[in-house]
Amino acid sequence: MLHSKIDLNLFLVLVAVYQEGSITEAGKQLHLSQPAVSHALSRLRDKYQDPLFVRHGRKMIPTQLCQTIMPRVLSSVAELESTLHDIGDFDVHQYQREMNFGFRDILESIFFPELATDLMANTPNITVHSRQVSRLDMEAALESQALDIVIDVLTPTNNDIQHTLICDEHFSLICRKGHPILSDMSLANYINAEHALVTLKDSAVNTVDMALAKHGVARKFALKCEHYFAATSVISRCDMLLTMPNAYARLLKQQMPVEVVPLPFEVPILPVHMYWHKQAVHDPLNSWMREKLLAIAKRVIPPSS
Known about the structure:
The chain is an alpha/beta fold.
């Protein structure tokens, strides 16, 4: 142990509790007992005159002061470790962790078939847990480390949230095989048909209907629901139309007797971004997973989709 005015090992405990969100799990990572971790944390609390973490259920949530100092602490620890190990020495097999994602069901269907099978075959020590998160709750979930990564449409965020474009959503028309509109794809026939609409609880903007409004027309909805799979099952059996993201439409075409065709009007591309908190910048596993998701997106969602 290093000794001076403050024991530098205390910062390793701080980092472990911050990353694990648990005193018990931090102890396992550091090969220390739970009382030893609690004692180290108590010494830091005395130094900073701040609780540093507050318990929320089973999770240790960092205080505002802790959030403020952690980027420098993480950077300093990483810099010290880099003097011992080359950054290229990162080995994902040394980690055993569950990655928590905020994905809509449509994104689970696009990413998970390839991601989950790859993880099971090559890195079974890494597991995933996915749930839907509203755009209003996304920032808090990333900040509290309830979620590691979120993928959703481009939305305004504060400066603590990092993000990058992962893919573009192009919209297509999906309908039953033999639908009359397939022989005369026109805006008039599109408007005159009955439509199914998939809506998310926190969806404030519908880009398709905004595009139609520019033509001075609107759709008639015979069905509104929250899941594309259910809506596709319905339209495969009747003359309703469904407008949806192209990548997922092509996946559903493999499972149901439907056709996927271009729309008779232009809808702006919807950028989809991957989000993570700035505290994860120095987390090699989070970085590794982000790169993997970007690579999957390039394979399963071609730019011309």
